[in-house]
Amino acid sequence: MAGREAQRGAMRRVQVVLGHLAGLPAGSSGAGAGLQAAPCASYAALSSPDDVVVVHGRRTAIGRSKRGGFKDTTPDELLSAVMTAVLEDVDLPPEALGDICLGNVLQPGAGALTVRIAQFLSGIPETVPCSSVNRQCSSGLQALINIAGGIRNGAYDIGLACGVESMSLGSADNPGDISSRTMDNSKARDCLIPMGITSENVAERFGVSRKKQDAFALTSQQKAARAQQLGLFKTEIVPVTTTVVDDKGNRRTITVSQDEGIRASTTLEGLAKLKPSFKENGSTTAGNASQVSDGAAAVILAKRSKAAQLGLPILGVLKSFAVVGVPPDIMGIGPAYAIPVALEKAGLTLNDIDIYEINEAFASQALYCVEKLGIPMEKVNPLGGAIALGHPLGCTGTRQVVTLLHELKRRGKRAYGVVSMCMGTGMGAAAVFEYPGN
């Protein structure tokens, strides 16, 4: 059994190497350049009509919770904006969808009512079914994996995965109905630890200093500010026209088309002045933690053969997914354990990956994961992460996929990317995607 697994792993590695050789430009003097025309090294030979592919993805801008442009916008409206946009962009008839799945954390029933209303607001007929899922901060990614699973098992050939959160209108304060025995079980009790305290636990246990956390936060802001200034988010953001109400009840119509949390003027000195948010003498602050936000994202997935039949583009290929459990009191370490599992399933190594989109729930945990895995910092969140952009809980996983694949497309070369995040109660998730090249 072990021998067969080793053989399969070796074959996957051979495929990856051949794929890299196939991606060398014509006339390249790189090692193996002469092999690129060989049929066995062609990308088409390594692809399968049964592959699950990402056809297209869009997102809203990310608004500042309770203060930003989406503070009075309901999640179904945010969701409808991106649902409508992705379908219109690729001219896909809504009735072609086999299923819809929404990732959401704060709405009742994980947004089960939200997604059904949003599909009708988007002109998607009642014949298209829908569901919702709550895997906390990975909900948006889990929605994508659920749709991919339906495609793989033959239930349908094309589907829509979404994520949405209005942290302005929703509340995370109510844990729901839990057993009176919760406090008698240490792991169960740890599930109730505030997220900020889990960040402090990671910082203390693994020696992640306040100075390093602030430096990481500054880098996130600088990357996001640069991306925004260069217009790198424009292709992924759907401008949303909505209504905001001021303190006096006055209403005005605005269009939100840029992420609101990016602070180009951030400095290390300014970050150093911020007081700890969760613990006296702690190291987690409002400046080195993710922002509370509002936003939505949507991704069309299809079986490769169906995409070809309908003439749809291919933005990426889903290669693997992994989800793992970790101790609840240090939940932030999840990506450090999920990423290696997902890479192994894809037959890839850490060095094969061009971009890592790792959710910055807190600088403490993101830094720990990056350093534990030995990922070069330049490969991490090249357009900034949740510290700068914001973290609308159920939206983030889908948003990361959209950002990753649009950035890989902008770069133009065949490449691999990873989306990963930690989750409250102690979990980590990771998915590997391939961009096939222009």
From TrEMBL:
Pathway in which this enzyme or protein is active: Lipid metabolism; peroxisomal fatty acid beta-oxidation
Alphabetized GO MF terms: acetyl-CoA C-acetyltransferase activity; acetyl-CoA C-myristoyltransferase activity
Record InterPro entries: Thiolase, Thiolase-like, Thiolase-like_sf_Thiolase, Thiolase_acyl_enz_int_AS, Thiolase_AS, Thiolase_C, Thiolase_CS, Thiolase_N
Listed SUPFAM superfamilies: Thiolase-like
Domain Thiolase C-terminal stretches: 313-434
Record carries keyword Nucleus: no
Chain ranges of the Thiolase N-terminal domain: 52-305
GO cellular component: peroxisome
Subcellular location: Peroxisome
GO BP annotations listed: fatty acid beta-oxidation; phenylacetate catabolic process
Pfam family, one: Thiolase_N
Catalytic activity entry: an acyl-CoA + acetyl-CoA = a 3-oxoacyl-CoA + CoA; tetradecanoyl-CoA + acetyl-CoA = 3-oxohexadecanoyl-CoA + CoA; 3-oxo-(6Z,9Z,12Z,15Z,18Z,21Z)-tetracosahexaenoyl-CoA + CoA = (4Z,7Z,10Z,13Z,16Z,19Z)-docosahexaenoyl-CoA + acetyl-CoA; 3-oxohexadecanedioyl-CoA + CoA = tetradecanedioyl-CoA + acetyl-CoA
Alphabetic keyword roster: Acyltransferase, Fatty acid metabolism, Lipid metabolism, Peroxisome, Transferase, Transit peptide
NCBIfam families noted in UniProt: AcCoA-C-Actrans
Family named by the database record: Belongs to the thiolase-like superfamily. Thiolase family.
Protein name, as recorded: THIKA thiolase
Organism of this sequence: Crypturellus undulatus
